[in-house]
Amino acid sequence: MSTLDWDEVKRLAADFQKAQLSSTLQKLSERNCVEIITKLVENKLLDIIFTNDGKEYITPQHLAKEIKDELYIHGGRISLVDLAQILNVSLSQVSKVATEIEKDTKGLKIILGQLVDKTYTNKIAEEINDKLMQHGSINVSELTIQYDLPTEFLQSLVERELGKTIFGKQDTQDFRVFYTESFIARNKAKIRGALSAITKPTPLSVVLAQCSVSERIFFSIIDSLQEMKQIPGVVVGRQGIKSFYMPTIYSKSQNEWVESFYKQNGYLEYDALGRLGISDPQSFVRRHFPNENIVSLDSVAVGVAITDQVYANIEEAVTSGSFVDISPLLPSVFTDKDMEMLLKLAEKKLNNNTHVFAKTVVMTDAFLQSLCKSFEALADTKAREMVASGQWFQSVAESRIKSKSADVLIESKGSKKEERRKKAAGGKAGGGAQGRETKTKSTKKKYLQGKGRDNDSDDEHPRHTPGKLELQLVSLEDIQNEIMKDDNLSIIDDLVDELAAYLQPRINSHAISVADQLAQNNKTTNLSDIEERLNMLLTNIKVFEKGIKYLDKTNHLALTKYLLKSLGTDFLTELFKLAAQQNMLQIPNNVTTEARQKMLLDLPDDVKEPLSNIHKSVTGASIDDFFNVVDAAMASCCLVLKKYDKKKERPFILGHREALLEELNGIQDPALALHLVTSILFTAATQNALYMSGRHVSTVLSFLQTHLQPSTMAVLSKYHDLVLKSLTSTDEGTKLDVAKELAAGLIEIKNIANEFKQHVRTDKPQE
Questions:
Q1: Mapping DSSP to helix (H, G, I), strand (E, B) and coil, where does residue 142 land?
Q2: In CA terms, which of 146, 199, 399, 565 is 20 to 30 Å from 301?
Q3: Can you tell me the distance from the alpha carbon of 631 to that of 139, in angstroms, rounded to the nearest whole number?
Q4: 9 vs 683: which has the higher pLDDT
Q5: What's the confidence (pLDDT) of residue 511?
Q6: Hey, is 528 helix, strand or coil?
Q7: Secondary structure (DSSP) of 220-245
Q8: Residue 537 to residues 558, 568, 596, 630, 656: CA-CA distances in angstroms?
Q9: Residues 412, 414, 420, 423: is their CA dihedral positive or negative?
Q10: Percent of the chain residues past pLDDT 70, beyond the cut
Q11: Is 171 in a helix, a strand, or coil?
Q12: Residue 444 φ then ψ, to 5°
């Protein structure tokens, strides 16, 4: 180095040192730099991307360069998420720049959030080819799992590189499968050898497992071998792995067995053919025996020998009027459905009047009629018992109520002419032979009136018939028990139940007809007994009415209402029950006021009006009003109101008093005892009877003050006060003390009633 050069270096070093030591007059702070950059960005003079921490920024061009560098470093495939983490830039900015790179760069793609370039696709194409050569076949679906790439991408890659990088063939049935020629040839030889060695029907699933070939390729190769006739047999069934391979040698022996068995037995069982490997036995039988008249049943195919035998036995049964069970005539392999189908064919061919029971038994009409006739004695017995017990009317009434809604529907569909005929037959105003009948004393005519009116009201749809058919006079169990007595019938399974179900409606219908006739000829309701009871009730009411008149008039109303409510209601209940029986109505267990009103709606007009009047009179307060309508009410039910006999008053009063005394001596209830004692003393004092309740005791005792000895009256008044105190007191101690006093005085008041003659005053004349 020259002296001048060295001097120049020293001078520059001095200037550099001077510059370092001198202070700067103008210096930009970090904040100013940030503001300048921000201003440039806002004015769109500068395009930058900030890092995730905000401390650095880069341009999109530099980011694109870094992305390409990272892609190269990672072998041509990298996730955008990984790029964002590596470059410390937001995923959105990375995705945006990556999209621009994809547009500008050929062979680079974004797949499932990953950048993939041509280098990577070439690499996996080579790997796929290696795998194809190694295994002989590949499936794109398996590659999808291995490379974690979409199926469509890999499919297009393999198809594009086929014959270039990847050497193989695409399956014509499944485009996602690729294989080599050597692979197909190897498996074809394996399958051909396995099928050639089979000597009996073998499921293809067994062959498939033995050859270790995929199911799809297996069936494709089998189809190819069958077309080229390179295997000694056929595949039957065509149901995938459920198909069978039938060797030719076995088919020959199979045909020989089928022909031999059919000639010996006259039938072929489908299950047996199935065990031989025949997948469609019915079609096989039709093809193998085209000239035979074979009938295909449910589980077997039968020839002429068996069908002719069955037809001959049925014809013999028809000729003799008996029955035949074909099950012993047929082999045990025949099912019930087979026999049933065979009998239906026989019925069409023979065209005779027969019935099939228990699927195997053929019965002729003549035999069934003889059975019905043998059961008529049982039906007659049941009918007589039903009518004799009085249950017939109740059952008919109940069945009429059940069929009432159906009758209303039938009536609504009838023509106007039918409605007019029904109204006339129903007993409404108007002329004609079916018009309303006048009242009569004939019980038989009145009994038939309700039935005749209903039957005549609708010739086509009688009201009683549907109801009667529902009655069970002869039960199914009764018929079964009778059939079981015949050993020839009882030994056949299920025959008894089915035959009983068939015969029961007929036998029951016969029993109903017999019961209906018996009911018309022999009326079970004894009208004379009912008439006697009702007249006795009316006599009692008249006697008790006379007793009421002895009391003050202010008490007449309450006692009269009580008398009508009790004995009058008893009379009314008995009368309504009779009316319901005579008109075939249901009789409720408890004949309440509401039940009587409901019964009135169903009664005919000639019965409804008088019964409605007496029904109203019972709720009133006049005995005279009640007796004014009694005669008409009884006449509507074919009963006669007898003339009142005063000679019966005295015996009735004495009997009533004795009955009260007997009841009194058998009770320990103080309140009831006082009630009975008061009634007995009233009868003794007035020589008349009184029908009263417990609330009327104080009224009657007030009346008896002038008829009893003062001492007797004092005892009864005291006892009456104790009874009231016992009933009204709320204090338990008081009630206990009163109960003791009542128990102590019970014997005394009983003695007063039993010795009533000593306690009734004789100095006061009787009223």
A1: helix
A2: 199
A3: 107
A4: 683
A5: 80
A6: helix
A7: HHHHHHHHTT-SSEEEES-SGGG-EE
A8: 20, 8, 19, 12, 13
A9: negative
A10: 77
A11: coil
A12: -65, -45
Q: Please tell me the predicted confidence (pLDDT) of residue 444.
A: 35
302 Cβ neighbours under 8 A, 6+ residues apart = 266, 267, 294, 295, 342
**Residue 153, amino acid:** F
Contact 243, 203 (CB under 8 A): yes
**Neighbouring C-beta atoms of residue 514, cutoff 10 Å:** 20
DSSP letter, residue 455: H
Q: Tell me the average pLDDT of the chain.
A: 77
Q: What are the strands, taking DSSP E only, across 113-255?
A: 114-116, 137-139, 169-170, 177-179, 202-203, 233-236, 244-247
Q: What is the pLDDT of residue 135?
A: 80
CA–CA separation, 474 vs 509, rounded Å?
9
Residue 596, both tokens: 């009587």
In the chain, count H helices and then E strands: 38, 17
Torsion sign over Cα 8, 10, 12, 15: negative
- ∠ CA 93-99-100, rounded to 5°: 95
CA distance 340 to 330: 12
| pLDDT at residue 440, as a whole number | 36
Tokens of 699: 């009224």
3-class secondary structure per residue, 491-504: CCCCHHHHHHHHHH
Which residue, 287, 338, 342, is CA-closest to 311? Answer: 342
Residue 109 makes CB contacts below 8 A (sequence gap 6+) with: 102, 115, 116, 117, 153
Of residues 286 and 521, more confidently modeled? 286
The residues that bridge with 78 in the sheet, in sequence order, are 115
Q: What are phi and psi of 464, to 5 degrees?
A: -80, -30
With tokens 């007059």, the residue in question is: 25
pLDDT digits (tens, 9 = 90+) for 183-205: 777 777 777 777 766 766 666 76
* Res. 459 pLDDT band, cuts 50 70 90: very low
Report the chain's terminal Cα–Cα distance, integer Å: 182
> In angstroms, what CA-CA distances link 55 with 35, 49, 60, 88?
14, 11, 16, 11
DSSP string, 699-747: HHHHHHTTTB-HHHHHHHHHHHHHHHHHHH---HHHHHHHHHHHHHHHH
- Please give the angle made by the CA atoms of 360, 361 and 364, to the nearest 5 degrees: 145
How many angstroms separate the CA atoms of 489 and 511, rounded?
23
pLDDT tens-digit readout, 197-239 = 676 666 676 676 666 666 666 667 667 677 666 676 667 666 6
What SS3 string covers 391-411? HHHHHHHHHHHHCHHHHHHHH
- If we measure between CA atoms, which residue out of 260, 214, 219 comes closest to residue 238? 219
d(CA 110, CA 159) in angstroms, rounded, equals 20
- Give the distance from CA 282 to its chain's centroid: 40
Tallying the residues shown for the chain, one arrives at 767
Contact indicator for 283, 307 with CB cutoff of 8 Å: no
Per-residue pLDDT at 346: 81
Beta-sheet pairing, 267-269 with 323-325: unpaired
Task: Give the tokens for residue 688.
Answer: 């008349």
- The single residue listed with the structure tokens 């009688």 is 462
Task: Using DSSP bridges, classify how beta strands 137-139 and 177-179 pair: parallel, antiparallel or unpaired.
Answer: antiparallel
Helices in 299-389 by DSSP H: which ranges? 304-320, 336-350, 365-374, 376-389
Sole residue written with tokens 């039960």? 475
Strand order, beta sheet including 267-269: 267-269, 300-302, 295-296
The pair of three-digit structure tokens given for residue 167, joined into one six-digit string: 């050497």
Contact assessment for residue 619 and residue 566, using Cβ atoms and an 8 Å cutoff: no
